[in-house]
Fold this sequence. Notes:
Layout: H1 15-18, H2 21-36, H3 38-48, H4 53-78, E1 84-86, H5 88-97, H6 103-123, H7 125-130, H8 135-153, H9 156-159, H10 161-177, H11 182-196, H12 221-249, H13 256-270, E2 278-280, H14 285-289, H15 301-315, H16 318-326, H17 330-352, H18 357-372, H19 381-396
Antiparallel strand pairs: 1-2
Helix pairs in contact: 2-15, 3-4, 3-5, 3-17, 4-13, 4-15, 4-16, 5-8, 5-12, 6-12, 6-13, 8-12, 8-17, 8-18, 8-19, 10-11, 10-17, 11-17, 12-19, 18-19
Amino acid sequence: xxxxxxxxxxxxxxxxxxxxxxxxxxxxxxxxxxxxxxxxxxxxxxxxxxxxxxxxxxxxxxxxxxxxxxxxxxxxxxxxxxxxxxxxxxxxxxxxxxxxxxxxxxxxxxxxxxxxxxxxxxxxxxxxxxxxxxxxxxxxxxxxxxxxxxxxxxxxxxxxxxxxxxxxxxxxxxxxxxxxxxxxxxxxxxxxxxxxxxxxxxxxxxxxxxxxxxxxxxxxxxxxxxxxxxxxxxxxxxxxxxxxxxxxxxxxxxxxxxxxxxxxxxxxxxxxxxxxxxxxxxxxxxxxxxxxxxxxxxxxxxxxxxxxxxxxxxxxxxxxxxxxxxxxxxxxxxxxxxxxxxxxxxxxxxxxxxxxxxxxxxxxxxxxxxxxxxxxxxxxxxxxxxxxxxxxxxxxxxxxxxxxxxx
Length: 407
């Protein structure tokens, strides 16, 4: 049994012996920072779905419990710092996609997307498929989903210029001087300015623990194509793939079948309680996986355990958390969520334009169609963007050269 997934340790390590304050702090921070920015995107998705307070708390509970269980169990079993997070790009996709569907239909799509991810992960099809879909097209799909949300948030400058301006200024100053905590600082600035301007909504006294609320799934072709398909693609391409790459960059040899397959299976099991998708973390996971956690990478799995325990604790207080966040002005939520998505949007745009002229045209087509918000035959813009970009790529594909050099 290896200790870190690197094949270098002959025996299982002791958690108590490997325990360190730096790893524990890194794990807790990775969880808390996820609640500082990406969590607001999840709340926007619950608002788009028209959920009541109990259903919203259940959504938070399901995501937190799923993140926590997977992080703790997989980190202990593999001795790799496995950091699990919810699909932030997936939540951004849902903001634009849920309006035309009932929540029961959305739950059916969540289950389908997670089951597909589990199958593709466990069988090893995940890597095989990604190798055959042009990466710039997938990145353009993600960019087309994220950019409208970022652009729309600019409208907050008209209704709450002081709050919006303060958040943006703090964020970019943070990027300059303390990059890792820029989103956290932007959130703090937004809350302070909201309080100073008297913009907070009345806070209902809620002292109940969060808990699951079951929603029976309904499976419809339109929801499967408009929600499940793009959710599956975005989660796999923009979350699980970077998560595996991040682990590899730190010298680990993660078992992608075990990690992606098991996490996606848990996601499917929790979908009836609101979990739209959990997956390997990428951005916030870097805190726990990198040298900031511990100089010895064999001891960094403690950060995965600590982060998972933090999620489990937070999950049971979902009702309190949701009630508190619902008192925050919508402008604050929108702008903080937008700056939290800037990094992902920039990465996606860079990836979309990274190919040759042929893939660039296909990616640009995907981006334009996805950003248009077009709904045709009951199918959302994300589906049509992916279809259009893939079609352009096939049309422009070069035929392989013959042995005599002709085409």
